[in-house]
Amino acid sequence: MPRQFFVGGNFKMNGSTESIKSIVNNLNSAKLDASTEVVISPPALYLPLTRELANEKLGVAAQNVFDKPNGAFTGEISVDQLKDINVNWTLVGHSERRVILKEGDEFIARKVKAAVEGGLGVIFCIGETLEEREANKTIEVVTRQLNAVAKELTKEQWAQVVIAYEPVWAIGTGKVATTEQAQEVHAAIRKWLHEAISAQASANTRIIYGGSVSEKNCRDLAKEADVDGFLVGGASLKPAFVDIVNSRL
Ligand code: 13P
């Protein structure tokens, strides 16, 4: 079975009631490639609005989730609370949380486990900084990030995970990875899946690219054998997102 192309829109800490209504209404009425899975991720505050307004073809993801069940965790949101409002996906391990909020590999891995065990789909983000790339540590870094999650999940649970490779130096910089750079890392991740998890996980897990994806560069990236979609930041707030969803038409 071929892997279904997957395009996520990460709004980050952007938007207002008015602008999010307008983005979702635009997506509801747009002609989107029916063979592509589309999941949008507004700030937590707008998750109920987004889920209520978006048509049933659009998935909705939280940008983060906590690793513990409901309880005394001020400011956090639980897996059960997301499910309560019909949000079936969450991002985990975005580099802005790793770098700015100092979330570590083990904490992130526990969140992936909590989300997967609660039945959510997880867009698990990994990627190296510029410093790490320049030191030729890209594969070492993504392997370390993947290994942390592998310790927490069963082989079968990888079916609920989409891996987002987002080089930190490409995020919000306009400096997109070349098609060769993206394919090289995606192929290495697929090889890791084969060796560390299973042949099935390697064949079936979507590996998507994020970092300055635009309506201009998405078509070439989408042609790479191991690029199964995108995680889009800035451009997901614009009408250009529709062109990215339709990058294979
Ligand atoms: P940009 O598309 O704005 O570079 O952001 C990418 C990203 O971080 C998506 O999660």
From TrEMBL:
**UniProt keyword annotation of Electron transport present:** no
Which keywords does UniProt give here? Gluconeogenesis, Glycolysis, Isomerase
Gene Ontology biological process terms, A to Z:
gluconeogenesis; glyceraldehyde-3-phosphate biosynthetic process; glycerol catabolic process; glycolytic process
Catalytic reaction list:
D-glyceraldehyde 3-phosphate = dihydroxyacetone phosphate
Which E.C. number(s) belong to this protein?
5.3.1.1
The highest taxon in the source lineage is Eukaryota
Gene3D superfamilies per UniProt: Aldolase class I (3.20.20.70)
InterPro entries of this UniProt entry?
A: Aldolase_TIM, TIM_sf, TrioseP_Isoase_bac/euk, Triosephosphate_isomerase, Triosephosphate_isomerase_AS
A GO-annotated cellular component: cytosol
Tell me, what is one Gene Ontology molecular-function annotation carried by this entry? Answer: triose-phosphate isomerase activity
Q: Name the pathway it acts in.
A: Carbohydrate biosynthesis; gluconeogenesis; Carbohydrate degradation; glycolysis; D-glyceraldehyde 3-phosphate from glycerone phosphate: step 1/1
Q: Name one Pfam family in it.
A: TIM
Family matches, as NCBIfam families = tim (TIGR00419)
Q: Which HAMAP family match?
A: TIM_B
**Family, per the entry?**
Belongs to the triosephosphate isomerase family.
Q: How does this polypeptide assemble, per the annotation?
A: Homodimer.
Please state what the protein is called: Triosephosphate isomerase
Its lineage opens with: Eukaryota, Fungi, Dikarya, Ascomycota, Pezizomycotina
